[in-house]
Amino acid sequence: MTIRTVTTTPFEGQKPGTSGLRKAVSVFQGQNYLENFVQSIFDSLDGCQGQTLVVGGDGRYYNRQAIQIILKMAAANNIGRILVGVNGIFSTPAASAVIRKNNAFGGIILSASHNPGGPNGDFGIKYNVGNGGPAPEKVTNAIFEHTKTINQYKILDAGDINLDRPGSFKLGTMEVEVIDSVNPYVELMQELFDFEKIKSLVSSDNFKMCMDSLHAVTGPYANALFEKFLGAKEGTVQNGIPLEDFGGGHPDPNLVYAHDLVEIMFAENAPDFGAASDGDGDRNMILGNNFFVTPSDSLAVLTANATLVPGYKDGIAGVARSMPTSAAADRVAAKLGINCYETPTGWKFFGNLLDAGKATLCGEESFGTGSNHIREKDGLWAVLFWLNILAVKGESVEKIVKDHWQEYGRNFYSRHDYEEVESGPANELMDRLRSQVAEMKGKTYGNYEVDYADDFAYTDPVDGSVSQKQGIRIAFTDGSRIVFRLSGTGTKGATLRVYIESYEPDASKHDVDTQEALSPLIQLAEEIAQIKQFTGRDKPTVIT
Ligand code: VG1
Ligand code: CO
Fold first, then answer.
1. Candidates 278, 345, 362: which one to mutate for ligand 1, based on the most atoms within 8 Å of Cβ?
2. How far, in Å, CA of 129 to CA of 274, rounded?
3. Using a CB cutoff of 8 Å and minimum separation of 24, what contacts does 147-151 make?
4. How far apart are the CA of 18 and the centre of ligand 1, in A?
5. Is 1 a residue whose pLDDT tops 80?
6. For position 492, what pLDDT does the model report?
7. Closest-CA residue to 457 (of 441, 473, 443, 442)
8. Phi-psi label, residue 209: left if phi above 0, alpha if psi -120 to 50, beta otherwise
9. CA 137/CA 153 separation, integer angstroms
10. How far is the CA of 136 from the centre of ligand 2 (A)?
11. Whole-angstrom Cα distance, residue 308 to residue 321?
12. Ligand nearest 93 Cα, by number?
């Protein structure tokens, strides 16, 4: 087997976004496109020679071909050993767990997460470091710099590895181990949760649950966990067979895209509990009978009830949330006397806090929740956490959340997405806001007085690194807030995200419809940012 050195030229725009490099499949299929990025990863990693790397993806279209290319390039770049998932598949949380368990140097995860898949869909690739978490900006910036000057890559001339079942192979001098990640993942969950208690709940005749894997990566994990180990009825997991194009759907667990589940959970005689996860298994949506739990509230409820779960029975060190996530968790942290950290969007910013033991639980408004058990958000972990709480409390999802609001007040919350708008005007909208925020403090808009307004910048409390321009925050003195940012995971044009939040301490007003409760702020967001003028849209494409 010989190593081939191939001459190449740089591609524009191989800059990793919120969570890796994401582009249309057709872009990744272009000659040398994937290879350039993979070689740039190897070139920017000091000391990866002879080390172990973990490789796997969410099983979407082009996953198999990409994995074969990466294996041959890893062999040519003197990687010592690769752990790869059967069929090239790992959920993102499972990949993080495998990196940690095997003390791997890092991992390459292939996913475009919640973006649609298939030949006309999206593909993505990201590098995770040795703690199992997404590479911090220092590393992603170094990779990006390499993509700008790359002129050659190395690849081993060899046949494809059989990934159909577990086994050991050699590619040149590199070892390849094809492993199954479902059992190790189940074992990790068994360490954290009270399976006996959950089992008695989910297998009882009085309890019905529905788990929608949206034809994405969690199907096999969810089947093993719920139907095999926890005794849930057959058929509890729906859309449980992973498909390369996710059955043509958007594998995004929210009220819009997980419509099958939403229909079931908002029908008469609906199940007691419903959940869904995304393309790569790191997101979760939690529903009760005719009841939706916002991800921000979910983080707050998990934080408040953490000691009911064996893995967190001694209490949690701190909680962290991304900046646009509502302040519901902050109120719980204040009561518990622990720190609540506000980080930029993207899980990579939680890694240092988790490593340093400053935070135990983390969450994002975008249906992401997780803990220090790995360094990625974890969809099925969140589902089990909720089931464990339900099993201990013996109450409904709705009662638990409403009691929580009663105790802490309710943070009404909604995100309005304007997808695939033109990039130029979207950037102008943000630039205009950026130039205005400095003078907003103390200004009044109707009943709202601006408490503070800025373009969010974050200084990592562990390594002191600074991340600028993370989104426009306009906070008002009554605890309400409007946030504007552009998505870093979209692949077409720009996506404007507007996050709207208000705080209501009065329990008699907690049953108001969210969009209604937020309507003055929604109007104010339009007034301040002139969304219609810049995007040409008079309403969002997705409201969550
Ligand atoms: C979105 C979410 C962000 C999340 C990211 C990756 O990013 O808002 O909270 O971390 O997706 O999630 P953006 O830049 O489009 O707003 V996943 O499950 O797609 O890896
Ligand atoms: Co995801």
1. 345
2. 33
3. 147/10, 147/11, 147/14, 147/15, 147/36, 147/37, 147/40, 148/10, 149/10, 150/8, 150/9, 150/10, 150/36, 150/39, 150/40, 150/43, 151/7, 151/8, 151/9, 151/10
4. 6
5. no
6. 86
7. 473
8. beta
9. 23
10. 17
11. 21
12. 2
Q: Give per-residue pLDDT as tens, 79-105.
A: 999 999 999 999 999 999 999 999 999
Structure pTM? 0.95
Q: DSSP readout, 25-39? A: HHHHHSTTHHHHHHH
40 is known as an active-site residue = no
Output b/e per residue, 192-215; b: 16+ Cβ within 10 A.
bbbbebbbebbeeeebbbbbbbbb
**What is the Å distance from ligand 2's center to 523 Cα?**
31
Q: Determine the Cα angle at 383 with ends 380 and 389, to 5°.
A: 140
Nearest alpha carbon, ligand 1 atom 2: 366
Position in ligand 1 atom list of the atom nearest CA 114: 19
What is the Cα–Cα distance from 261 to 214, expressed in whole angstroms? 9
Instruction: Please report which ligand is nearest the Cα atom of 122.
Output: 1
- Strand 466-467 versus strand 339-343 pairing type: unpaired
β-pair type (52-57, 81-89): parallel
| C-alpha 81 – ligand 2 centre gap (Å) | 26
Residue type, 87: N
User: pLDDT tens, 312-360?
Assistant: 999 999 999 999 999 999 999 999 999 999 999 999 999 999 999 999 9
Using the atom order of ligand 1, give the atom closest to the CA of residue 365.
9
| Total residues found in the chain within this entry | 544
Distance CA 255, CA 263 (A): 10
Q: Give the Cα separation of 83 and 524 in Å (integer).
A: 51
| Other CB atoms within 10 A of residue 170 CB | 12
Q: Catalytic one among 111, 113, 213, 326?
A: 113
Q: In this structure, how many other beta carbons lie within 10 angstroms of the beta carbon of residue 538?
A: 8
Give pairs for 265-269: CB < 8 Å, separation 24+: 265/210, 265/289, 265/290, 265/291, 266/290
pLDDT at 491: 84
Q: Which residues contact 346 (CB under 8 A, 6 or more apart)?
A: 18, 19, 134, 322, 488
245, 533 contact by CB (below 8 A): no
Q: Average pLDDT, whole number, for the chain?
A: 96
Q: Which of 440, 428, 531, 438 is nearest to 477 (CA)?
A: 440
Largest CA distance in the chain: 73
Look at ligand 1, atom 19, and give the residue with the nearest C-alpha.
Answer: 113
* Residue 204 phi, psi dihedral angles, 5° rounding: -80, 155
Task: Tell me the average pLDDT across 458-463.
Answer: 96
Pocket of ligand 1 from Cβ distances under 6 Å: 18-19, 113-114, 278, 282-283, 322, 345-347, 364, 366, 368, 487-490, 497
